[in-house]
Prior knowledge:
The protein has 380 residues and is an alpha+beta fold. It contains 11 helices and 10 strands.
Amino acid sequence: MDFAYTPEQVQLRKSVREFAESEIAPHVLEWDEGQVFPLEVIKKAGELGFLGAIFPEELGGAGLGYIEYSIIVEELARVDPSVGLIVAAHNSLCTNHIFLAGSEEQKQRYIPNLATGDWIGCWSLTEPEAGSDAAGTRTQAVKQGECWVINGGKTFTTNAQYADVCVAMAVTDRGASQHGISAFIIEKGTPGFRVGKKENKMGMRASATGEVLFTDCRVPESQLLGRQGEGFIDSLRTLDGGRISIAALSVGAAQGAYEAALKYAKQRKQFGRPISEFQAIQNKLADMATAIDASRLLTYRAASLKDAGARVTKESSMAKLFASESAVQVCNEAVQIHGGYGFIKDYPVEKFYRDVKLCTIGEGTSEIQRMVIARQLLKS
Ligand SMILES: Cc1cc2nc3c(=O)[nH]c(=O)nc-3n(C[C@H](O)[C@H](O)[C@H](O)COP(=O)(O)OP(=O)(O)OC[C@H]3O[C@@H](n4cnc5c(N)ncnc54)[C@H](O)[C@@H]3O)c2cc1C
Protein backbone atom coordinates (compact mmCIF):
# COMPACT_ATOMS: atom_id res chain seq x y z
CA MET A 1 0.00 0.00 0.00
CA ASP A 2 1.41 3.36 -1.00
CA PHE A 3 -0.26 6.65 -0.12
CA ALA A 4 2.17 8.87 -2.06
CA TYR A 5 1.41 10.34 -5.47
CA THR A 6 3.92 9.60 -8.21
CA PRO A 7 5.80 12.64 -9.62
CA GLU A 8 3.69 12.21 -12.81
CA GLN A 9 0.46 12.38 -10.80
CA VAL A 10 1.67 15.53 -9.00
CA GLN A 11 2.50 17.09 -12.37
CA LEU A 12 -0.84 16.04 -13.83
CA ARG A 13 -2.74 17.65 -10.94
CA LYS A 14 -0.73 20.84 -11.42
CA SER A 15 -1.46 20.95 -15.17
CA VAL A 16 -5.19 20.31 -14.76
CA ARG A 17 -5.37 22.91 -11.99
CA GLU A 18 -3.65 25.49 -14.18
CA PHE A 19 -6.05 24.71 -17.03
CA ALA A 20 -9.08 24.95 -14.73
CA GLU A 21 -7.90 28.19 -13.11
CA SER A 22 -7.12 29.91 -16.39
CA GLU A 23 -9.74 28.54 -18.81
CA ILE A 24 -12.70 27.79 -16.56
CA ALA A 25 -12.59 29.90 -13.37
CA PRO A 26 -13.16 33.30 -15.07
CA HIS A 27 -16.42 32.06 -16.66
CA VAL A 28 -18.03 29.91 -13.97
CA LEU A 29 -20.73 32.38 -12.93
CA GLU A 30 -21.60 33.40 -16.50
CA TRP A 31 -21.93 29.77 -17.67
CA ASP A 32 -24.06 28.92 -14.66
CA GLU A 33 -26.41 31.87 -15.04
CA GLY A 34 -26.81 31.45 -18.80
CA GLN A 35 -26.73 27.62 -18.80
CA VAL A 36 -23.90 27.92 -21.29
CA PHE A 37 -22.29 24.65 -22.39
CA PRO A 38 -18.56 25.52 -22.66
CA LEU A 39 -17.93 23.73 -25.96
CA GLU A 40 -14.72 25.60 -26.77
CA VAL A 41 -13.16 24.77 -23.39
CA ILE A 42 -14.29 21.15 -23.68
CA LYS A 43 -12.53 20.96 -27.06
CA LYS A 44 -9.36 22.33 -25.42
CA ALA A 45 -9.71 19.71 -22.67
CA GLY A 46 -9.84 17.17 -25.50
CA GLU A 47 -6.57 18.48 -26.92
CA LEU A 48 -4.98 17.98 -23.49
CA GLY A 49 -6.17 14.37 -23.32
CA PHE A 50 -8.78 14.84 -20.60
CA LEU A 51 -11.58 13.46 -22.79
CA GLY A 52 -9.74 10.23 -23.43
CA ALA A 53 -8.00 9.83 -20.11
CA ILE A 54 -8.58 6.12 -19.57
CA PHE A 55 -8.22 4.85 -23.14
CA PRO A 56 -5.08 3.41 -24.72
CA GLU A 57 -2.81 5.66 -26.70
CA GLU A 58 -3.22 3.50 -29.80
CA LEU A 59 -6.92 4.47 -29.75
CA GLY A 60 -6.11 8.15 -29.35
CA GLY A 61 -6.46 8.16 -25.57
CA ALA A 62 -4.08 9.44 -22.90
CA GLY A 63 -3.35 5.90 -21.66
CA LEU A 64 -3.82 6.88 -18.02
CA GLY A 65 -5.27 4.89 -15.14
CA TYR A 66 -8.31 5.57 -12.96
CA ILE A 67 -6.25 7.36 -10.27
CA GLU A 68 -5.07 9.88 -12.88
CA TYR A 69 -8.59 10.09 -14.30
CA SER A 70 -9.93 10.79 -10.78
CA ILE A 71 -7.34 13.54 -10.37
CA ILE A 72 -8.51 15.14 -13.64
CA VAL A 73 -12.21 15.05 -12.75
CA GLU A 74 -11.48 16.22 -9.20
CA GLU A 75 -9.43 19.22 -10.33
CA LEU A 76 -12.02 20.27 -12.93
CA ALA A 77 -14.82 19.93 -10.37
CA ARG A 78 -12.85 21.92 -7.80
CA VAL A 79 -13.37 24.91 -10.09
CA ASP A 80 -16.61 23.97 -11.87
CA PRO A 81 -18.46 20.70 -11.14
CA SER A 82 -20.41 21.10 -14.41
CA VAL A 83 -17.22 20.71 -16.41
CA GLY A 84 -16.28 17.69 -14.30
CA LEU A 85 -19.68 16.18 -15.12
CA ILE A 86 -19.35 16.79 -18.87
CA VAL A 87 -15.93 15.12 -18.88
CA ALA A 88 -17.05 12.24 -16.63
CA ALA A 89 -20.14 11.35 -18.70
CA HIS A 90 -18.14 11.54 -21.93
CA ASN A 91 -15.26 9.33 -20.70
CA SER A 92 -16.89 6.92 -18.29
CA LEU A 93 -20.27 6.35 -19.85
CA CYS A 94 -20.31 6.84 -23.61
CA THR A 95 -16.71 6.09 -24.58
CA ASN A 96 -16.10 3.48 -21.92
CA HIS A 97 -19.22 1.50 -22.85
CA ILE A 98 -17.87 1.34 -26.43
CA PHE A 99 -14.43 0.41 -25.09
CA LEU A 100 -15.84 -2.34 -22.84
CA ALA A 101 -18.32 -3.89 -25.24
CA GLY A 102 -17.49 -2.68 -28.74
CA SER A 103 -16.21 -4.67 -31.68
CA GLU A 104 -12.77 -3.85 -33.05
CA GLU A 105 -14.39 -1.86 -35.90
CA GLN A 106 -16.53 0.13 -33.46
CA LYS A 107 -13.55 0.90 -31.24
CA GLN A 108 -11.50 2.04 -34.24
CA ARG A 109 -14.31 4.24 -35.56
CA TYR A 110 -15.48 5.87 -32.34
CA ILE A 111 -12.82 5.89 -29.63
CA PRO A 112 -10.16 7.98 -31.42
CA ASN A 113 -12.76 10.62 -32.30
CA LEU A 114 -14.22 10.64 -28.79
CA ALA A 115 -10.90 10.43 -26.93
CA THR A 116 -9.54 13.50 -28.66
CA GLY A 117 -12.76 15.47 -28.22
CA ASP A 118 -13.40 15.75 -31.95
CA TRP A 119 -16.71 14.15 -31.11
CA ILE A 120 -18.72 14.56 -27.91
CA GLY A 121 -20.44 11.52 -26.47
CA CYS A 122 -23.56 10.90 -24.43
CA TRP A 123 -25.08 7.80 -22.83
CA SER A 124 -28.80 7.22 -22.48
CA LEU A 125 -30.10 4.66 -20.05
CA THR A 126 -32.68 6.59 -18.01
CA GLU A 127 -36.26 6.98 -19.22
CA PRO A 128 -39.18 8.91 -17.75
CA GLU A 129 -40.64 5.66 -16.34
CA ALA A 130 -37.33 3.83 -15.83
CA GLY A 131 -34.91 5.64 -13.52
CA SER A 132 -33.61 3.61 -10.58
CA ASP A 133 -35.40 0.64 -12.12
CA ALA A 134 -33.44 0.99 -15.36
CA ALA A 135 -34.28 -2.58 -16.33
CA GLY A 136 -37.82 -1.23 -16.87
CA THR A 137 -36.63 0.38 -20.13
CA ARG A 138 -39.44 0.87 -22.65
CA THR A 139 -37.54 2.17 -25.67
CA GLN A 140 -37.69 -0.64 -28.15
CA ALA A 141 -35.50 -1.84 -31.02
CA VAL A 142 -37.04 -4.22 -33.54
CA LYS A 143 -35.04 -6.13 -36.12
CA GLN A 144 -36.16 -5.47 -39.72
CA GLY A 145 -33.96 -7.19 -42.26
CA GLU A 146 -30.39 -6.00 -41.76
CA CYS A 147 -31.47 -3.03 -39.62
CA TRP A 148 -32.73 -2.24 -36.14
CA VAL A 149 -35.63 0.21 -35.88
CA ILE A 150 -35.62 2.12 -32.60
CA ASN A 151 -38.64 3.87 -31.08
CA GLY A 152 -38.95 5.55 -27.71
CA GLY A 153 -37.43 8.26 -25.60
CA LYS A 154 -34.73 8.79 -23.02
CA THR A 155 -34.54 11.51 -20.40
CA PHE A 156 -31.83 13.25 -18.37
CA THR A 157 -29.01 12.49 -20.82
CA THR A 158 -25.86 14.46 -19.99
CA ASN A 159 -24.28 16.14 -23.06
CA ALA A 160 -27.35 15.23 -25.18
CA GLN A 161 -27.55 18.56 -27.01
CA TYR A 162 -23.88 18.56 -27.97
CA ALA A 163 -23.34 14.87 -28.63
CA ASP A 164 -22.08 13.55 -31.94
CA VAL A 165 -22.47 10.00 -30.69
CA CYS A 166 -25.07 8.50 -28.38
CA VAL A 167 -24.99 5.10 -26.75
CA ALA A 168 -28.59 4.17 -25.92
CA MET A 169 -30.22 1.15 -24.37
CA ALA A 170 -33.36 -0.39 -25.92
CA VAL A 171 -35.43 -3.51 -25.38
CA THR A 172 -34.81 -6.17 -28.02
CA ASP A 173 -36.60 -9.03 -26.26
CA ARG A 174 -39.33 -8.00 -23.87
CA GLY A 175 -39.68 -11.47 -22.41
CA ALA A 176 -36.03 -11.75 -21.39
CA SER A 177 -36.05 -9.05 -18.67
CA GLN A 178 -32.50 -7.78 -17.92
CA HIS A 179 -31.12 -9.98 -20.70
CA GLY A 180 -33.53 -8.50 -23.22
CA ILE A 181 -31.97 -5.02 -23.35
CA SER A 182 -29.34 -4.16 -25.96
CA ALA A 183 -27.08 -1.17 -26.49
CA PHE A 184 -26.86 0.77 -29.75
CA ILE A 185 -24.50 3.44 -31.04
CA ILE A 186 -26.41 6.20 -32.79
CA GLU A 187 -24.69 8.99 -34.66
CA LYS A 188 -25.97 12.55 -34.79
CA GLY A 189 -27.87 13.11 -38.02
CA THR A 190 -29.30 9.59 -38.19
CA PRO A 191 -32.89 10.00 -39.45
CA GLY A 192 -35.40 9.45 -36.64
CA PHE A 193 -32.89 10.42 -33.92
CA ARG A 194 -33.27 13.79 -32.28
CA VAL A 195 -32.61 15.63 -29.07
CA GLY A 196 -35.64 16.99 -27.23
CA LYS A 197 -36.12 19.31 -24.30
CA LYS A 198 -33.09 20.70 -22.49
CA GLU A 199 -33.69 20.65 -18.73
CA ASN A 200 -33.53 23.86 -16.68
CA LYS A 201 -31.63 22.63 -13.66
CA MET A 202 -30.96 23.64 -10.06
CA GLY A 203 -27.24 23.03 -10.47
CA MET A 204 -24.68 21.68 -12.93
CA ARG A 205 -26.19 24.26 -15.24
CA ALA A 206 -23.26 24.49 -17.66
CA SER A 207 -23.69 20.79 -18.40
CA ALA A 208 -26.52 20.21 -20.86
CA THR A 209 -29.06 17.59 -19.79
CA GLY A 210 -31.83 16.56 -22.11
CA GLU A 211 -34.15 14.18 -23.82
CA VAL A 212 -33.05 11.84 -26.59
CA LEU A 213 -35.89 10.72 -28.86
CA PHE A 214 -36.23 7.95 -31.42
CA THR A 215 -38.95 7.80 -34.06
CA ASP A 216 -38.55 4.89 -36.48
CA CYS A 217 -34.81 5.44 -36.16
CA ARG A 218 -33.21 2.86 -38.45
CA VAL A 219 -29.64 1.82 -37.77
CA PRO A 220 -27.65 -0.97 -39.43
CA GLU A 221 -26.72 -4.14 -37.55
CA SER A 222 -23.20 -2.70 -37.17
CA GLN A 223 -24.57 -0.20 -34.61
CA LEU A 224 -25.52 -2.91 -32.11
CA LEU A 225 -22.99 -2.46 -29.28
CA GLY A 226 -21.93 -5.66 -27.53
CA ARG A 227 -23.95 -8.83 -27.67
CA GLN A 228 -27.66 -8.68 -28.31
CA GLY A 229 -29.48 -8.75 -24.97
CA GLU A 230 -26.40 -7.83 -22.93
CA GLY A 231 -26.74 -4.03 -23.09
CA PHE A 232 -28.14 -3.72 -19.57
CA ILE A 233 -25.47 -5.97 -18.06
CA ASP A 234 -22.79 -3.99 -19.93
CA SER A 235 -24.39 -0.79 -18.59
CA LEU A 236 -23.90 -2.04 -15.04
CA ARG A 237 -20.22 -2.77 -15.82
CA THR A 238 -19.95 0.71 -17.33
CA LEU A 239 -21.46 2.24 -14.21
CA ASP A 240 -18.89 0.46 -12.01
CA GLY A 241 -16.27 2.73 -13.57
CA GLY A 242 -18.59 5.72 -13.88
CA ARG A 243 -19.29 5.82 -10.17
CA ILE A 244 -15.57 6.32 -9.50
CA SER A 245 -15.77 9.49 -11.58
CA ILE A 246 -18.85 10.72 -9.68
CA ALA A 247 -16.97 10.08 -6.43
CA ALA A 248 -14.03 12.10 -7.81
CA LEU A 249 -16.45 14.82 -8.90
CA SER A 250 -17.85 14.96 -5.35
CA VAL A 251 -14.35 15.20 -3.88
CA GLY A 252 -13.48 18.06 -6.22
CA ALA A 253 -16.65 20.02 -5.49
CA ALA A 254 -16.19 19.54 -1.75
CA GLN A 255 -12.54 20.60 -2.01
CA GLY A 256 -13.49 23.78 -3.88
CA ALA A 257 -16.14 24.67 -1.30
CA TYR A 258 -13.84 23.85 1.61
CA GLU A 259 -10.99 26.01 0.28
CA ALA A 260 -13.39 28.95 -0.18
CA ALA A 261 -14.73 28.49 3.36
CA LEU A 262 -11.23 28.25 4.87
CA LYS A 263 -10.15 31.46 3.15
CA TYR A 264 -13.34 33.27 4.15
CA ALA A 265 -13.08 32.09 7.79
CA LYS A 266 -9.61 33.64 8.05
CA GLN A 267 -10.71 36.96 6.52
CA ARG A 268 -14.15 37.52 8.03
CA LYS A 269 -14.07 39.31 11.38
CA GLN A 270 -16.88 39.29 13.93
CA PHE A 271 -16.67 40.19 17.63
CA GLY A 272 -13.28 41.75 16.83
CA ARG A 273 -11.54 38.65 15.52
CA PRO A 274 -11.48 36.34 12.52
CA ILE A 275 -14.31 33.82 12.72
CA SER A 276 -11.67 31.07 12.22
CA GLU A 277 -10.71 31.67 15.86
CA PHE A 278 -14.11 30.45 17.06
CA GLN A 279 -14.09 26.79 17.98
CA ALA A 280 -17.48 26.19 16.33
CA ILE A 281 -15.99 27.25 12.98
CA GLN A 282 -12.78 25.27 13.58
CA ASN A 283 -14.85 22.14 14.26
CA LYS A 284 -16.66 22.60 10.98
CA LEU A 285 -13.40 23.01 9.07
CA ALA A 286 -11.91 19.95 10.76
CA ASP A 287 -14.95 17.81 9.93
CA MET A 288 -14.98 19.07 6.34
CA ALA A 289 -11.28 18.34 5.76
CA THR A 290 -11.62 14.89 7.33
CA ALA A 291 -14.66 13.99 5.22
CA ILE A 292 -12.86 15.10 2.03
CA ASP A 293 -9.78 13.04 2.86
CA ALA A 294 -11.87 9.95 3.63
CA SER A 295 -13.82 10.41 0.38
CA ARG A 296 -10.64 10.82 -1.62
CA LEU A 297 -9.14 7.67 -0.11
CA LEU A 298 -12.26 5.61 -0.90
CA THR A 299 -12.20 6.99 -4.45
CA TYR A 300 -8.53 6.13 -4.95
CA ARG A 301 -9.04 2.66 -3.47
CA ALA A 302 -11.75 1.93 -6.04
CA ALA A 303 -9.60 3.52 -8.76
CA SER A 304 -6.53 1.52 -7.87
CA LEU A 305 -8.50 -1.77 -7.75
CA LYS A 306 -10.02 -0.93 -11.12
CA ASP A 307 -6.55 -0.29 -12.54
CA ALA A 308 -5.49 -3.68 -11.16
CA GLY A 309 -8.31 -5.28 -13.16
CA ALA A 310 -10.52 -6.17 -10.19
CA ARG A 311 -14.31 -6.01 -10.20
CA VAL A 312 -15.19 -2.85 -8.25
CA THR A 313 -18.99 -2.93 -8.00
CA LYS A 314 -18.95 -2.64 -4.19
CA GLU A 315 -15.94 -0.33 -3.92
CA SER A 316 -17.10 2.15 -6.55
CA SER A 317 -20.58 2.30 -5.01
CA MET A 318 -19.08 2.82 -1.55
CA ALA A 319 -16.86 5.61 -2.87
CA LYS A 320 -19.74 7.27 -4.72
CA LEU A 321 -22.16 6.95 -1.79
CA PHE A 322 -19.76 8.26 0.84
CA ALA A 323 -18.10 10.95 -1.26
CA SER A 324 -21.38 12.38 -2.61
CA GLU A 325 -23.21 12.41 0.73
CA SER A 326 -20.13 13.91 2.45
CA ALA A 327 -19.75 16.51 -0.29
CA VAL A 328 -23.34 17.68 0.23
CA GLN A 329 -22.55 18.12 3.96
CA VAL A 330 -19.25 19.88 3.23
CA CYS A 331 -20.89 22.32 0.82
CA ASN A 332 -23.70 22.95 3.29
CA GLU A 333 -21.15 23.84 6.01
CA ALA A 334 -19.19 25.98 3.54
CA VAL A 335 -22.34 28.07 2.99
CA GLN A 336 -22.91 28.21 6.77
CA ILE A 337 -19.36 29.48 7.40
CA HIS A 338 -20.03 32.29 4.91
CA GLY A 339 -23.19 33.32 6.79
CA GLY A 340 -25.42 35.54 4.64
CA TYR A 341 -22.70 35.91 2.01
CA GLY A 342 -22.88 32.16 1.43
CA PHE A 343 -26.36 32.75 0.06
CA ILE A 344 -25.14 35.32 -2.43
CA LYS A 345 -23.87 34.46 -5.89
CA ASP A 346 -20.75 36.64 -5.53
CA TYR A 347 -19.26 33.80 -3.47
CA PRO A 348 -18.57 30.39 -5.04
CA VAL A 349 -20.03 28.25 -2.26
CA GLU A 350 -23.61 29.02 -3.29
CA LYS A 351 -23.00 27.27 -6.62
CA PHE A 352 -21.08 24.34 -5.15
CA TYR A 353 -24.04 23.79 -2.81
CA ARG A 354 -26.46 23.59 -5.77
CA ASP A 355 -24.17 21.59 -8.05
CA VAL A 356 -23.10 18.93 -5.61
CA LYS A 357 -26.59 17.60 -4.92
CA LEU A 358 -26.57 15.90 -8.32
CA CYS A 359 -23.78 13.61 -7.11
CA THR A 360 -26.19 11.83 -4.73
CA ILE A 361 -28.60 11.22 -7.65
CA GLY A 362 -26.79 10.70 -10.98
CA GLU A 363 -25.45 7.23 -11.89
CA GLY A 364 -27.71 5.77 -9.20
CA THR A 365 -29.12 7.49 -6.14
CA SER A 366 -27.65 6.98 -2.67
CA GLU A 367 -30.53 4.61 -1.91
CA ILE A 368 -29.57 2.52 -4.94
CA GLN A 369 -25.87 2.59 -3.98
CA ARG A 370 -26.81 1.13 -0.59
CA MET A 371 -28.78 -1.61 -2.36
CA VAL A 372 -25.79 -2.38 -4.60
CA ILE A 373 -23.38 -2.48 -1.64
CA ALA A 374 -25.71 -4.62 0.48
CA ARG A 375 -26.23 -7.07 -2.39
CA GLN A 376 -22.46 -7.49 -2.68
CA LEU A 377 -22.08 -7.90 1.09
CA LEU A 378 -24.80 -10.54 1.28
CA LYS A 379 -23.27 -12.48 -1.59
CA SER A 380 -20.08 -13.19 0.35
C1 LIG B 1 -28.34 16.28 -14.11
C2 LIG B 1 -28.59 14.83 -14.38
C3 LIG B 1 -27.78 14.15 -15.27
C4 LIG B 1 -28.04 12.82 -15.59
N1 LIG B 1 -27.29 12.20 -16.55
C5 LIG B 1 -27.66 10.96 -16.99
C6 LIG B 1 -27.05 10.38 -18.15
O1 LIG B 1 -26.11 10.94 -18.74
N2 LIG B 1 -27.52 9.19 -18.61
C7 LIG B 1 -28.54 8.53 -17.99
O2 LIG B 1 -28.92 7.46 -18.45
N3 LIG B 1 -29.14 9.05 -16.87
C8 LIG B 1 -28.74 10.25 -16.38
N4 LIG B 1 -29.37 10.81 -15.28
C9 LIG B 1 -30.45 10.09 -14.65
C10 LIG B 1 -30.14 9.59 -13.23
O3 LIG B 1 -29.23 8.52 -13.30
C11 LIG B 1 -31.49 9.25 -12.59
O4 LIG B 1 -32.14 10.48 -12.34
C12 LIG B 1 -31.33 8.44 -11.33
O5 LIG B 1 -30.85 7.16 -11.60
C13 LIG B 1 -32.65 8.32 -10.54
O6 LIG B 1 -33.73 7.97 -11.37
P1 LIG B 1 -35.08 8.85 -11.29
O7 LIG B 1 -34.71 10.26 -11.44
O8 LIG B 1 -36.07 8.28 -12.20
O9 LIG B 1 -35.59 8.66 -9.79
P2 LIG B 1 -36.49 7.46 -9.23
O10 LIG B 1 -35.93 6.15 -9.63
O11 LIG B 1 -37.91 7.73 -9.55
O12 LIG B 1 -36.29 7.62 -7.67
C14 LIG B 1 -37.05 8.51 -6.84
C15 LIG B 1 -36.64 8.23 -5.39
O13 LIG B 1 -37.01 6.88 -5.03
C16 LIG B 1 -35.88 6.20 -4.54
N5 LIG B 1 -35.97 4.78 -4.93
C17 LIG B 1 -36.26 4.28 -6.17
N6 LIG B 1 -36.25 2.94 -6.12
C18 LIG B 1 -35.93 2.59 -4.84
C19 LIG B 1 -35.77 1.34 -4.16
N7 LIG B 1 -35.88 0.18 -4.78
N8 LIG B 1 -35.46 1.38 -2.84
C20 LIG B 1 -35.32 2.57 -2.19
N9 LIG B 1 -35.48 3.77 -2.78
C21 LIG B 1 -35.76 3.78 -4.09
C22 LIG B 1 -34.69 6.90 -5.21
O14 LIG B 1 -33.50 6.65 -4.51
C23 LIG B 1 -35.14 8.34 -5.15
O15 LIG B 1 -34.90 8.86 -3.87
C24 LIG B 1 -29.09 12.13 -14.93
C25 LIG B 1 -29.87 12.81 -13.99
C26 LIG B 1 -29.66 14.13 -13.72
C27 LIG B 1 -30.56 14.84 -12.75
